[in-house]
Amino acid sequence: MVEMELDHERCYRIVSSADARFDGWFVTAVRYRSTRSTESAADVSFEQALLEGLAPDGGLYLPSTLPALPPAWREAESLAELAVQVLPPLVGAGPGELDDLLRDALDFEVPLVPLSDDRYVLELFHGPTLAFKDVGARVMARLMARARARKGGALTILAATSGDTGSAVADAFAGLDGVRVVLLYPMGRVSDVQERQLTVVRPGVTTFAVRGDFDDCQRLAKEAFADPDLRELGLSSANSINIGRLLPQALYYLWGALLWQRAGAEPGVPLLFCVPSGNLGNLTAGVLANRMGLDVARFLAAHNANDYFPGFLRGDRAAYAFKPTIGTLSNAMDVGSPSNFERLETLLQERLPERVWGVSVDDDATLASMRQSVQRDGYLPCPHTAVGLAAVERYRAETGTSAATMVLATAHPAKFPDAVVRATGQAAPHSPALDALLGLEQRVLALEPDLAALREALVADATISP
Ligand SMILES: *Cc1c(COP(=O)(O)O)cnc(C)c1O
C-alpha cells in the first residue's frame, strides 16, 4: 500500500508506504520541453509529448528535469523491475500504476556476455523481432494504448519503414485494444528476412508494399498526417524521435552496469559504453541514464560509412554538411543526418566532444570485425554490433586505454545471413523466433505511391480492422 498526497499536475509526495522502494521518496511528474524552447511555460506532460511525437516548434521533446534514481535500483533483478522503479515519475504515473504494463512489455532476457580483454556485450536482441528496438517500441506501444483508452477516440499508428523499425513497431502494437497499425515499406527493397517480419499477419496490423522507394513511403506518411480526410483515424507516428521510445532505452544502460558489477567489476569504476549508432536515439538514451545518476566514463558512437556525427565530433564541417544516405551492411544505421543529434546537442552542449568519441567503420572493416570476433572469442556479432566492436579497437589504439568497455549488441546475427556468410564463410545460425515466422501466414497489399490510393486503402481497411 502506498499513500500519497496529490499536488497539482500529478506531483506526489509519498507519505507512507509499505514498499521500501518508495518510502519518503518525493515524486514529481516530469515535464517535457522542446529542444528549441527555453520557456518552461511551454512544457507539456509526458502523455502530450508521447502522442504528439514532434513538438509544435519542430523540436524534439526532452525531460525538463530528471529525477535521481531511487536508491533501490541497484537491487533490481530484471530489466522490468528496473523499469517499475525508475519510469513512473518520468511518464507521469504513480508508483505501482505501471507494474503490469512494464512487466508485460519487458518480458525477455537482456544478458551480458563477457568477451576477452575486459570487453562485454550487452545483448539487447532477445525480444520478439530480434533487435533492440523491441525495448523502446514495446513500452511505448503500451503507454500509447493506455493514453488512448483514457482519452477515448481512435488511434492509428502509421509508420514508413525501411526495415527493422516497422516490424518492431507492428509487433509491439499488435493486438493492443483500440489501436491499429499501418506499415508502408518500399516493395522489393527490403531483405527477405525483413520482408517476412513485416508481412506476417498480426492482429490490427495492415502492411502495404509501396511501388516506390523509402522516400516515397516517408512522403506518403507525411501527407497522410496532414490530410483532413484522415483525421478521424487518429493518425500518430511511432518513429524514433518519440520520447516514449527513448526513456525505456535508458534502462538497459543501468541494467548493463548492474550485471557488470555483479560479474565482479571493481566498485566505483565507471564503464565505457560503445553504441552502434544511426539516428542516435540509443546514444541519447545513454546520456539520459548518465544524467539520472549512472556513472559513465565516456560514450563511443560507432557509425558505419554514414559519418555525419563522427565528422561533427572531429570538427570536420564538410563531413557533417547535409549528405545523402549511403547503403551499407549495417543497414539499420544508414542515416545521413541523425534526428537525435539535436537532443544530444541540447543535453551536452559544448561538452559533447569530451563526453562522446565517434568513429566511422566501413563495410570491409565491419566484415573483418565479424570474422575476428568469431576467431578471437567464438562470438558471432551482427553487422551493427560488429561496427561497435571495431570502434572499441580503434578507440583503444588511439587512446592507449584498456578500460572495461560494454558494446550494446543491437540485433541478432540470424537477421543478416548474407553478411554472416561473407564474413565467416559459414551459414548464419538459426533463431527459433525467425524460423517460427517461416510457417506463419503472410499478408501484404500493393500500393501505388500516391495519397489518394493510400486514403482509399485506409478507409476501406478501417471497416475490417478493430
Ligand atoms: C536502429 C538500429 C541501430 C541504430 O540505433 P539508433 O538509435 O538509430 O542510433 C543500430 N542497430 C540496429 C540493429 C538497429 O535496428
Termini separation (Å)? 37 Å
- Categorize the overall geometry: globular
Task: Describe the largest sheet.
Answer: 6 strands, mixed
**Mean pLDDT value:** 89
Please give the share of residues in helix.
25-40%
Describe this structure in words.
By secondary structure, the protein is α/β, with parallel strands linked by helices. It is 39% helix and 17% strand. The strands form four sheets. The chain has a six-stranded mixed β-sheet, sandwiched between helices. The radius of gyration is 22 Å and the shape is globular. Residues 4-16 have low confidence and may be disordered. Bound molecules: pyridoxal-5'-phosphate. Pyridoxal-5'-phosphate (PLP) binds next to α9.
Brief sketch in words of this structure:
By secondary structure, the protein is α/β, with parallel strands linked by helices. Helix content is about 40%, strand content about 15%.
Question: What descriptive keywords fit this protein?
Answer:
single chain, 466 residues, alpha/beta, six-stranded mixed β-sheet, binds pyridoxal-5'-phosphate
Write the layout of secondary structure elements.
Layout: E1 2-7, E2 11-17, E3 26-28, E4 32-34, H1 46-52, E5 61-63, H2 79-86, H3 99-105, E6 112-114, E7 119-123, H4 133-151, E8 155-160, H5 164-173, E9 179-186, H6 192-199, E10 205-210, H7 214-225, E11 235-236, H8 243-262, E12 271-276, H9 281-292, E13 296-303, H10 308-314, H11 341-348, H12 352-355, E14 356-360, H13 363-377, H14 383-399, E15 405-409, H15 417-424, H16 432-438, E16 445-447, H17 451-462
Parallel strand pairs: 7-15, 8-9, 8-11, 9-10, 10-16, 12-13, 12-15, 13-14
Antiparallel strand pairs: 1-2, 2-3, 4-5, 6-7
Helix pairs in contact: 2-3, 2-8, 4-5, 4-8, 5-6, 8-9, 9-11, 13-14, 13-15
Bound molecules: pyridoxal-5'-phosphate (PLP).
